[in-house]
Amino acid sequence: MSVELDPIIAQKLEDFRRRRRNLIFLRGVCTAIVTLLGVFSTIAIADYLTQARMPDQLRTVLSYSGYAIVIVAVWRTCVRLMIELPSRRKLARLIEQAAPELREDLLSAVELGREDGMERDSEIFRKLVQQDVSSRVKSLDMTSTLPLTRLRRWLQATAGLIALTLILLYNPDFGGKFQRAIGRALLPGANIAAVTDIEVTILTPGEEIKVTPKSEPLRFLVAVSGKNKEEVFDRVEFETRVAKKKRKPIAMSARNEDKFSLDYNVDREKFEYRILVDDSPVTMNIGSKTAQWIEMDVASRPFVTSFTKTYRFPEYTKLEPLTVTEDRGDLTGWEGTEVELVLHTNQPTTGGILALDLTGPGASELEFKPSEDGLQLSASLALRNPGTYRAVEVESAQTGWKSKPSQAFEIIVQLDEAPAIRVVSPEEKSLLVASDDILPLTIAARDDLALEKIEYHVQVNKRGWKKFPVPGLGANVDKKELMLQFDLDLIDLKLRPNDQAILKLVAFDRKGASGESDPLQLSIISRDLDLSAIQTLKLKSLVFQGIAKLATSADSRAKATIELYNSSLQGKDVPLSPAVAEELRALSGSLAEESELLLGQTLTALAAMPRGTDSFEV
User: Fold this and answer.
1) Mean pLDDT of 222-241
2) Residues 165 and 40 in one domain
3) Cα separation of 574 and 554, whole Å?
4) Are 509 and 573 part of one and the same domain?
5) 75, 162: one domain
6) Among 381, 414, 447, where does a domain finish?
7) Residue 273's CATH number
8) Domain for residue 184, yes or no?
9) Tens digit of pLDDT for each residue in 471-526?
């Protein structure tokens, strides 16, 4: 039968274990504070001494190494000991080391109370030993056995570092800088401004500007100051990074001794920027804030993505309304067309202006009306004068930015001109016809919109005009172009021999405008009239016209010959040059060719003319 450990001894062992655990935990806390402040203060001092020129990768490695040192120190002084749970035998030995008066008695009592089934001593002896030890440890105070003074140095070091840190943090001259320095060491990836002797103040853009238009220049103006007011700065650069990837720094231009500027071409992506002074990423102040990198988001100005145009044509055109959506905004329509113009924008807008520049009226403006979602702007205008228009001052509902003026789009007004009509056949404009002839006519007509009707008008002996429909043509032509051949029965006109009639074709369009053909002069003759004399007169007239033309040509060549003589031979005792001789030969040769051609025409006419006075005159 085994003897259990005395409850008093067991309780004292538990009290000792708890007291020891608490002190170990307290020592771990002190270790963490001391190593954390010591290691990271060292990193912060190194960052300051290098004036933030320490590469970001190296500073990150040092910070992670500092955390590793803190973890190892806490492991060795605290965590390792708390994980290893001591046995009762070990606890008894530790108590005997703290209370030497117990010597080996407590350890013996613990070992005699083991329940391992081994009985080397009598039960009575075990009980007597445990009762003795129990009476001696009953009054043992664990607070005195493991006093807090064992951690005096840890506590003093911790309190001293905490006090020094608080003094530095709340120092009015250095507190803010120390906070940033410790913060950069503790959080290497955080956007915390460096602590440097040189500081930069961002004058423009201001703190309130956090978004800038895409693909537009943005002006940066900075003021640089150092401890020494007379310090000269060799190089001030503007560095950016996009998606954490740095880009090559750009040199800034000096405005005066301490101010530098740069017009930076903003890309289409959000970016961060900082200022480097002599390769040092110095402290940047913007408004009331400081930062290592300053973020700048980008957005698009409002612009038009497409155009929806609804054309309502004049009523006379008989055209249905037309709606088209296009990438370009050019407007084309008949004069008087009403256009409902809708602009589709890339973002919600609050309004804009349609700036017109028309031929005649000049410049004018119409106000766009936004849709409920702001993604559409609409305006109505009538096409009466050609010109151009632009969409200007389209304001974004998100950023308040106004758009750049759009390109100039054309306004093309199609004038509905009068139709055109001509007589294709016969080609002669003066005709001798009998009153009962059938006159074959071929006409061609066209209109820029559509022909409405075609008539022929007749005036006899300078009396009033009479209108007649064209045979075989309906009342509504409804064609843009027409080629028509028809036979005109002159008996319907009730003409008599010796009448003089004028015949013309008249075309009408949908607007009511009309166009006329060249008139045909009709001389009405009797069926019994001999027409051979008229034919003889025509042949005689052709011969006389040819002679007059040859005379004119001979006169012009004579003038050319005289001018050539005056410029080349007059007053000069020299032979003719080859060029002058060739030109004289060309003049005489061309005149001879025309003379031969006229001679042939005259002989042909004489052969066709009957014998008599006329042929004798020719």
Assistant:
1) 84
2) yes
3) 27
4) no
5) yes
6) 414
7) 2.60.40.10
8) no
9) 888 778 888 999 999 999 888 888 888 889 999 999 999 998 999 999 999 988 87
CB 282 within 8 A of CB 196: yes
Task: Give the range of the structural domain holding residue 144, as residue numbers without chain letter.
Answer: 7-169
DSSP state letter for 300: P
CB 539 within 8 A of CB 608: yes
pLDDT number for residue 467: 92
Q: Please give the angle made by the CA atoms of 267, 272 and 277, to the nearest 5 degrees.
A: 110
98/13 same-domain check? yes
H helices present in 428-531, as ranges: none
pLDDT at residue 106, as a whole number: 56
**Residues 518, 541: one domain?**
no
Instruction: Answer yes or no: is 180 within a domain.
Output: no
> Tokens 């500073």 identify what position?
59
Q: Tell whether 155 and 74 lie within a shared domain.
A: yes
- The token duo for 80 is 């390792």
Query: 379 with 476: CB under 8 angstroms?
Result: no
Q: Produce one character per residue of 163-176: b if its CB has 16 or more CB atoms within 10 Å, e if not.
A: eeeeebeeeeeeee
Residue 328 shares a structural domain with residue 251: no
Write the CB contacts of 237 (distance below 8 Å, at least 6 apart in sequence): 249, 250, 251, 252, 275, 276, 277
Residue with tokens 């990271």: 40
Block residue for tokens 């190892």: 72
Whole-number pLDDT of residue 456: 93
**Higher pLDDT residue, 609 or 460?**
460
* Amino acid at the residue 617: E
Token output for 232 = 């000269």
Choose the final residue of a domain: 507, 525, 543: 525
Report yes or no on whether pTM surpasses 0.85. Answer: no
Q: What is the dihedral of CA 239, 241, 246, 249, to 10 degrees?
A: -20
Q: Are residues 405 and 434 in the same domain?
A: no
